[in-house]
Amino acid sequence: MTPAANTTVNKRMLNRRNFLEALVAAGLVSQLGWRSADTDEIAPSRAGAAAKRGPRILLRSSWQTVNIGDVAHTPGVLALIEEHIPDAEVQLWPSSIADGVEEMLRARFPNLTVIDRTAAGIRAAFAYNDFLLHGSGPYLVAADDVARWRAETGKPYGVYGITLGDPDQKTLDILNDAKFVFFRDTVSMNNALDKGLNQPVPTVRFGPDGAFATDLADTPAADAFLRANGLETGTFLCCIPRYRVTPYWEIYNREPTESEKASDAYNQRMKEQDHAPLRAAITAVVRQTDMKILICPEDRSQVRLGKEILLDKLPADVKPQVVWRDSFWSLDEARSTYLRSAGLFGHEMHSPIMCVGSEIPAVVCRWRQQTTKGFMWRDIGLGDWLFDMDDEGSRAGIAPAVLAIAKNPAAAKAKTQAALAYVRQRQRATMAKVAKEARLGIPA
Asked: Which pTM value belongs to this model?
C-alpha cells in the first residue's frame, strides 16, 4: 500500500462511510477479508459501486404529528439505516414534520436531508436517489407516491413494517413489484398472501415496526417532570387511555362532521367498558404495591380523557398515588419518561413499542377498530400481554397482568428482553435485505 493510501485510511476524522470507501480504494477489503454479516456492505461484486459512493435512499414516511406514535416511525427507521447501512445517504419525503418534529429529527440526524416537496423538488429527489423505502405505517400510506416512483423512475423500492387490511388490486400490483414487503404483524402478512400477494417467501416476512428502534430522548425535560410530580425511576407505571375512534375534530379544535358525530357517540358509549379494566389495574397496583401510576397521553385527545375517565373515577385512597399529565408532550420527553418507568399499559400501540424497544415491559389492550397491528405482540412472544377489549374474559386479565409486572419487575424485564432479542434479530435480517437491494440500485 502506498504512503498516500495509508494516510487516507488512517485519517482520524473519516466517518464510517468514507472509511469504507477508503478501504476499497486502497485495495484493503480483499486483504482484510472484511465483510458485514448483516448488511453485505462491501461485497467484492459491488466493490466498484461502493468505491464511488453508498446507496441513496429516499424514505417515504412521517405521516402526521398529532400522535407521538406516528412521529416515532421515522426516527426509528433512520436509526436502523444508520446502524445497519452506515454509508447510506438518506433523504426524507415526509407528509408532515410540523409541531417541532423537524427540529427534533435534525438534532438527532444532522446529516438528514428533507426534500423540497414541490413538483420540482420531488422530481429532483427521484433523479438523485437509487431506492425508495416506504416506512412503517397502518397500511401502504403513500401508495400513490410509490406508484409514481415506480412509473417515473423504474428504480427499485421496498416496504418496511406495515399493517394491511384487505388490499385492492392497485395495492397488490405495487407490492408484487417491490423488492421486499415486510409486515409488522403476521396476520397482515398471511392475509395479503391469501388475497393475491405473490412475492416469494424470503421477501415477504415479519418486519418489526420501525418505532422499535426509536432512540430520541429529552432527559432533562423528563427528569424535571418526574421531580415536580414525586416520581422516581423504577417506582411507577405509565397508563394510556384512548377513545375507540380518534377524535380528530377535538384534536384540531373544529366542529365534527355528521359521520364524526356518530363516531363520537360510539366513543362515549364504549369508553366506560374500555377504561374500567384500566382503573381496576391502577387500583390493584396502588393498593398492593408501593408503585405509583402516571396517566399520560400518546395523542392530544388523551390528556382530557385521562382525567375524566381514569383519575376522576378512582377510589379516594388510590388517587394520591396517581399523577395525571395535564399537557401533551413531545416524543423525546415521552420516551425518556417511559425509560424511567417500571412498565406501561393501556390502549395504544406505539408507546408500548418504544418501551419494549428499550427493555421496558408493556401491556397492549386492543379492539377491532385498531386493525391487526396489536397482534405483533404475539409475533414477538408477548401474547400474554395482549388483551382484547371486545372480549369480557380477556378484559378481566388486564389487572392481574399489570399487577404481576409491578410485583415482579425482574421477571417482567427478562420477558421483555427476550422479546427484544427477537425484534433485533428481525431488524438485522430485514435491514440486510434493504441494504442489498439499495446497493443493487446504484448505477453501474
From this structure: 0.88
Q: Does the pLDDT at position 309 exceed 80? A: yes
Give me the residue label for grid cell 407505571. Answer: 237
Strand partners, 205: 182
Mean pLDDT of the chain: 90
d(CA 308, CA 168): 40
Using CB atoms within 10 A of its CB, is residue 228 exposed (0-12), middle (13-18) or buried (19+)? exposed
pLDDT tens for each residue of 123-169: 999 999 999 999 999 999 999 999 999 999 999 999 999 999 999 99
Contact 123, 58 (CB under 8 A): no
Three cell numbers, residue 41: 456492505
Asked whether residue 195 carries a pLDDT value surpassing 60, the answer given is yes
- Distances in Å between the alpha carbon of 262 and those of 120, 179, 259, 274, 348? 42, 41, 5, 18, 22
Q: Is the pLDDT of residue 51 over 70?
A: no
Residue 6 Cα distances to 22, 33, 42, 52, 213, angstroms: 9, 18, 19, 19, 36
